[in-house]
Structure prediction request, 124 residues.
Amino acid sequence: MSSLNEKASALSNRHTFKIGGIYWLATLIHHWDDTDDLTDCIGDLYTDHDQIAEAIGCKGSSDDEILNHLLINQLTGLLIKVETPVMECIGYSWNHYSYTWIYAESLEDALEAAKNWVTNPRPQ
Prediction:
């Protein structure tokens, strides 16, 4: 197992998170044109416009605003959905979880951001 895989496994086990989706923007961004809907490329965008816009630092959350922000800022890294179960008084369950979107240029950066997100208090 590679050292990155070992690190990911250890971090996700210790901090109880999983990756719910990875979109490598470099492989998607050039396939959008005027007739495409951004939601066709990033399925989760259908429900998560605001969270994805926040993850990439975009002020607006429409398809056009997000796409323009990605192009202007040359954001071609990884858009990653990180999930963690909602902790309850006695343990946790993956049937009830919260998530966030993270933008990172590398998997290493994404792992660090995921760890930081799950170790900081979040609303339940």
